[in-house]
Amino acid sequence: MSTSTETSLDDANNAQKTPKTVPSTSELNKTNNFQRIAHKKMVVRSYPRNKKLETLAVYSSCKFECCKCNGWKNPNAPPQPPVADASQPLANLTDPCKSCRHPLEAHVSHLENTDEEELNRLLRIVVDVENLFVCVHREEDAEAKQVYFYLFKLLRKCILNTSQPSIEGSLGTPPFEKPSIAKGVTNFVLYKFGTLAQKEWQTMYDLAKMFLHCLNHWKLWPPASRGQQLDEKDENDYKLNYTRWLCFCHVPAFCDSLPRYETTLIFGQTLLRSVFQTMRRQLLDKFRAEKDKMPPDKKTLVLTHFPRFLTMLEQEVYGTSSPIWDQDFAQNTANLPTPSPAVSPGAAAGVSGLSRFTSSTVGTDACGVLNISSGLLTSGRQSSRSQEAAEKRKADEAGLSDGAKRPRIDGDVSKEMLQEILAEMNSDGEKEDTMVGPETICPTHAARDEQARQEEKDGKIDFHIINNSLSHRPSNQVFLWLIEMQNLFSHQLPRMPKEYITRLVFDPKHKCLVLIKQNHVIGGICFRMFPTQCFTEIVFCAVTSSEQVKGYGTTLMNHLKDYHLLHNITHFLTFADEFATGYFKKQGFSKDIKLPRAQYLGYIKDYEGATLMGCELCPRINYTDFSRVIRKQKEIIKRIAAKKSIETEKVFSGVGLFKEGVKLPLPFESIPGLVESGWKPPVKKEKEPQVDTDQLFNSLRTILQQVKSHASSWPFLKPVDKSEAPDYYDHIKFPMDLRTMTERLKARYYIHKHLFIADMNRIVTNCRSYNEPDTEYYKCANTIEKYYTTKMKEASLMDK
Ligand code: COA
Q1: 543: Cβ below 6 Å to ligand 1?
Q2: Which H/E stretch holds residue 572?
Q3: Ligand 1 pocket test: which of 461, 493, 549 has the largest number of ligand atoms within 8 Å of its C-beta?
Q4: Residue 229's pLDDT is what?
Q5: Atom of ligand 1 nearest to the CA of 550
Q6: Helix %, strand %, coil % for the chain, to 5?
Q7: Sheet architecture: strand order including 520-530
């Protein structure tokens, strides 16, 4: 879905252009231009050192005493700079500078001892500077032109000072508004659709992702081409946000020396309000125009669900008091994930060797490694979830939440009992370590990852996502871990060629989740993400021999699952050999692949003799915490059972009705203790009108009297005399007669008409089963049956 959305979006984005508003940088925004830029960066990176210095010399200041020359390309270039002379052949280091006439080497003397990576970084900035130069030249919109020029100068200064680019000043620093658009839209999905069933919820969640994806790739209009805005404040806000968007989102997309941010993560409701209506209209127009080319399911999604979704979202975007924009929005979503649709998989890289996350989600250390240990990766999900859970509890107590509205199911545990149990667990020191669970009594029953989780909590182990990068040199630490990872895989997977392992581990498209103990890699998973195809291929997975079967393999997989949920990837695929299928099965993999074949065919590497296995991730689950949650739930159920058993242990007096001469079957309610143990009469499917018991008693008394007075009732007036039919009770196990019925009536046994009907039927069926059809008795039974049913119907006690 995302691929085609991207295409549509690009087209839609292009469609918005009018000759006046076409930004002259539009080509730069296309994929082939990205590739061209990336290629150019790779080319300069492969230059010999001398050539690198020559290139940098023309951008660096002269170090001759008193020389003020800043190189050929003056950083203080005029706003209308001359056309770039990129085609000009490079000079030699001994050539004189065209401006100051000092040899060019005097411009790069400061770089003499600079390491190769730093030179490469500066060269990347050079490529960006040259691109910006073109942008400044071509841009027609005055404001955009100014911004390109500002960035051009900024990057030039970075080359001169060998510094890192940093945009400072009145624009402020991202995020510019909280909550972000991504958070607001996520809140919207939770707020409006949080109670839907999984499938419907997933659809809404996908629509939210699609919307955010569109917005992240949306090209904002220059303020001048938006037309006259009614609201001056909106106009000023938009101007400022447009400049910010250029500096932090748009330009960094093709000038990656500048830090890049996603639009939906750094802007909030204000920007969304400025663009929502136009964006909505153009997106829907585009989808409608493309509808004939879409597969039916996508058509339904974008033409039926998406417009409704947008209409509902619009109300919240422009509403004055929508809760989705509350900073501490907390919905009744204890069992829902807090998805991060805004985290676009495979988005532009930030720091070297670092998997890119939003700053609000995870942090990185000085090495540029993504540390996902101690719940850092899921902290967003967890903290908001626990907050939501707390809110939910409060709301439940106040009878406000949806939970309070939920109809009670028969046999539900009462709220009071649950609260009591939770309080007990708290007062028992309901901490993980002190909980009375099966694993404390019998450690072998503890979840496989329990020990590893504890070690992670204690800081004895941690997990990191690392990868090699061609554009940003990873830190030495990353390299060391990658080498250790490669060695570990080579040892544990002897059937895999070593060179092959090395190639994939060091391939920038592959990532490794590494498990670190005492600063050494003791396990890891190498994987490749295919965000457009919604799946990730698990390439290698291993734990060092001495550390196997301690739960590390499971914990690694759990972390990998959580990491992918944050990236909105919900499928894992792997080719498992005969030794690995057992492990993968235990991690939720199966040979039944849920992902459509077309989605992975041609993407995943095929291994001979191995079995393709897949695992579908559930966005509602926090995998690293899953076994703990289950353990807690088990403990709650155990305590509920214990409480209930105390209640049921009470000894009641026996059934007294027998003494009073009442025969079987007894009404259930009359058995002492049954009702107290929670038994309730089965609920009738059809709602029957409530009958007053006295009224019922009177009706039944009349009918019984009429039956007794009927001419055919004589065989049934009293119990069958054994002397008259010695074998009667051998055949008839549940005898019944009109006298017994009279006694029962008096004893108020017939609290429901069905009890009366049952006894009457018993008389008739007993008679028919004991006697032949041609007997007088049999005929009497038929007559009486007809008679009493007529009377019952007349009294509205039977359907007519
Ligand atoms: N076959 C069947 N079950 C296996 C298994 C195998 N080869 N390896 C592990 N398991 C089971 C464990 O017994 C455990 O089951 P349990 O919880 O019911 O006791 C469960 O899988 C997970 O154990 P865990 O301790 O979390 O895994 P681990 O740390 O031992 O790591 C491997 C599992 C597969 C990564 C590890 O055994 C290994 O490195 N093997 C060699 C390399 C390999 O074959 N990799 C897989 C293909 S790339």
Answers
A1: yes
A2: strand 571-576
A3: 549
A4: 60
A5: 25
A6: 50, 5, 40
A7: 370-371, 461-466, 510-517, 520-530, 535-543, 571-576, 611-616
- Residue 435 CA to residue 458 CA, distance in Å, equals 18
Q: Is the CB of 493 under 6 A from ligand 1?
A: yes
For residue 376, what pLDDT is reported?
40
Q: What confidence tens digit (pLDDT) does each residue in 251-274 have?
A: 998 898 998 899 999 999 999 999
The ligand 1 atom at the shortest distance from the C-alpha of residue 539 is 48
Handedness of CA 211, 213, 214, 215 (dihedral sign): positive
Which residues are catalytically annotated?
537
Tokens matching residue 471: 């554009």
How much is the pLDDT for 63?
A: 83
- Alpha carbon distances (Å) from 534 to 344, 599, 616, 661: 12, 8, 11, 73
Q: Are strands 535-543 and 571-576 parallel, antiparallel or unpaired?
A: parallel
Report the predicted TM-score, pTM, of the whole model to 2 decimal places: 0.44
| 58 Cβ below 6 A of ligand 1 | no
Q: Report the distance separating Cα 544 and Cα 70, nearest Å.
A: 55
Q: Which residues of the chain have pLDDT under 50?
A: 1-28, 74-89, 331-368, 374-405, 430, 432-442
Q: Is the CB of 203 under 6 A from ligand 1?
A: no
620 Cα to the center of ligand 1, angstroms: 25
Q: What is the pLDDT of residue 582?
A: 93
Alpha helices (runs of H) in 194-260, residue ranges in sequence order = 198-216, 232-245, 251-254
The per-residue pLDDT for 442 is: 41
How many whole angstroms separate alpha carbon 136 and alpha carbon 131? 9
pLDDT for the residue numbered 473: 81
Residues 481 and 474: their CA atoms lie apart, in Å, by 11
Structural domains in the chain, CATH included, are: 4-161 (no CATH), 181-239+260-327+353-394 (no CATH), 445-627 (3.40.630.30), 693-794 (1.20.920.10)
Find the 444 Cα to ligand 1 centroid distance in Å: 17
Q: Which pLDDT value is given to residue 25? A: 42
Please give the span between the terminal C-alpha atoms of the chain, in angstroms, as a whole number.
59
Residue 102: the pLDDT is 80
Residue 800 · residue 793 · CB < 8 Å: yes
Question: How many other CB atoms are found less than 10 A from the CB of residue 708?
Answer: 15
Q: Which pLDDT does position 744 carry in this prediction?
A: 94
Name the phi and psi angles at 667, rounded to 5.
-65, 140
Ligand 1: nearest atom to the Cα of 538: 48
Tell how far the Cα of 354 is from the centroid of ligand 1, in angstroms: 28
DSSP code per residue over 133-198: HHHHHH--SHHHHHHHHHHHHHHHHHHHHT------STT--S--SSS-HHHHHHHHHHHHHTTS-H
Helix (H) or strand (E) segment spanning residue 466: strand 461-466
Letter string b/e over residues 121-137, b meaning 16 or more CB atoms within 10 A of that residue's CB: bbbbbbbbbbbbbbbbb
Q: What is the pLDDT of residue 168?
A: 80
User: What is the distance between the alpha carbons of residues 361 and 367, in angstroms, rounded to a whole number?
Assistant: 18
Q: What's the confidence (pLDDT) of residue 375?
A: 43
Question: Residue 26 CB: number of other CB atoms within 10 A?
Answer: 14
Residue nearest atom 27 of ligand 1, based on CA coordinates: 553
Ligand 1 atom, smallest distance to 542 CA = 39
Distance from C-alpha of 16 to C-alpha of 220, rounded to nearest angstrom: 10
Ligand 1: which of 583, 605, 607 to mutate, most ligand atoms within 8 Å of CB? 583
Contact 482, 493 (CB under 8 A): no
